[in-house]
Amino acid sequence: MTHGATTAPHPIPRANAALAVGCEVCNGWGSVITAQGRHKLCLGCQPDADREVGESSGTPRAE
Fold first, then answer.
1. Three-class SS state of 36
2. pTM (two decimals)
3. Pairing with 10, which of 19, 31, 41, 50 sits 20 to 30 Å away (CA)?
4. Is 51 strand, coil or helix?
5. Helix, strand or coil for residue 20?
6. Mean pLDDT, range 56-63, rounded to an integer
């Protein structure tokens, strides 16, 4: 029997790598892992992170 890959329950956000360079919050990755184990755009370097639908704030904001 053939088994296919299952899809992720939540899509992984696409970070802008150019904006992530030098970010101390995400160490240049553009995304962080929440306490629930989900990928989330970094609030420190990704301007679209505030517009993610259905996400609760679990990442510290860079100041």
1. coil
2. 0.60
3. 19
4. helix
5. helix
6. 49
